[in-house]
Amino acid sequence: MKTTPDSAAAQPMRLAPIVTPDAKFFWDAADRGELVGQRCGACQRFRFPPRPMCPHCHSLEREVVPLSGRGRVYSWIRPVHPQPFGFAEPPIVALIELAEGFRIVSNLVGIAFEDVRAELPVAVEFEATQGGHRVPVFRPVSAS
Amino acid sequence: MTRRLRQAAVAGIGATEFSKNSGRSELQLAAECSKAALDDAGLHPADVDGMITFTLDGSDEINLARCLGVKDLAYTTRIPGGGAAAAATLYQAMAVVEAGLCEVVLIWRAMNERSQYRFGQPHTQAAGFQAGNGTGSLFWCMPFGAQTPASWEALAAQRYMQRYGVTNEDFGRVSVVQRRHAATNPAAWFYRKPITLEEHQSSKWIVAPVLRLLDCCQESDGGVALVVTSLSRARDLKQPPVRIAGACQSIPYNVEVISNYYHADLATMPEAEGTARRLWAQTGLKPADMQCAMIYDAFTPQVFKQLEAFGFCGRGEAREFVKDGHIALGGRLPINTNGGLIGEAYIHGMNNIAEGVRQVRGTSVNPVPDVEHVLVSSGMAAAVLAKDR
Questions:
Q1: Interatomic CA distance for residues B86 and A89, integer angstroms
Q2: Most exposed residue of A52, B84, B119, B151, measured as fewest CB within 10 angstroms of its CB?
Q3: Which of residues 116-145 of B touch A (CB under 8 A)?
Q4: Homologous superfamily of B8-116+218-387
Q5: ipTM of the complex
């Protein structure tokens, strides 16, 4: 395939997330550049992945709250083959243990694969996807 | 715990050839392997009154019953959980036979998983989503480039590698052993094609630093079927009965299929630990009572984690257990003596269960001496197959 260096359209672009009703709040917030979590409105405990009922107290009350955006690297890989859709180069896929105490799958950016270490402190930022959406990714920061 | 009204047994096994292009429909593969399993048992399709498969199987049970001429089905069900369903089909068949709800249960799994579609290619469409087979993979991984079973598996397995200092070369020893087993199995795709550890280490990365090409199961076309009936009836049939000494399932809180990232410690496999606890309690047996094991091996790290979860070695000790040769023929616990999903074929785990039956019967091409009990595990479910005494 012939690519034109100055044409953004020639570059593969990250696929948009598939949005389910129970997780819509999460992706809507990401579109605005916000990382949010779901907390039980009764017992105040976080849960992920999002769900309509609290597994601890069974309340249906739920709160969407801003998260710190800080976390640490729990595990990381680089899917090489087959080439993932939406990426020019194989991304670093990581599980991030968020400061609020639960994990999410995301990408590490701004670091070489060989330099990633367990417990590396990271902070959230957002990257564009197809269809004008955004998703959270994480960049190393100095420990706070 | 007394739970039995009567005991169940595997009376027949059947399979098509294993290939990369079957040249016929999945329904035809299903019909062929089912008829072969019934012939093996010495039963007629009209004897079948129960049918079980995976939710992911592409053949309709009514269409298959129409092929076979099944006269009156008392029970059908489909098991979710991707490959975790493999041993759970035996569990369900055992339950309905022991409860007296069915006399003859046919289990089948048939797929053109190489020529018609490929599990190993990226999964990116909601259209393919089916509840019961994991949600995280598509809804929480896909936009980040983790789009294949290998990448989902590797993200958890990397934590296991960190914890215990395990390398990809350590995992490679599983493939080397299983390819050696496949090399002497004429039914295996990799018949007469053993590999060395050096060849494993020079195969391309699929997901760095966890899985190379030779850590991954095949993509295969083919079908496998089993026939389960009561032990007393099986004793009157063509083959020596293979007792189902016990079977069970375990899905602990916050565990899910493959994109399994939310339970407390990803260096462990709580579903296999739960299955093991339940299975050993149910049967009164222990790891040392198994002469061999057929372990779901979609990817080599799953073998490590299951060896530990079932208590064949301690946590973090699979590396040494494998390195010391215990999983090879002649070792303490030969595994996947057909070559497994890596060496023989990927029929979603069911071809490994058929090999477990052959080991109890003494008809495996790679026989383990004096087999009394065989563990068959698919991670979230397992069974012990036993000689009829």
A1: 36
A2: A52
A3: 120-122, 124, 126, 129, 135-136, 138-145
A4: Thiolase/Chalcone synthase (3.40.47.10)
A5: 0.94
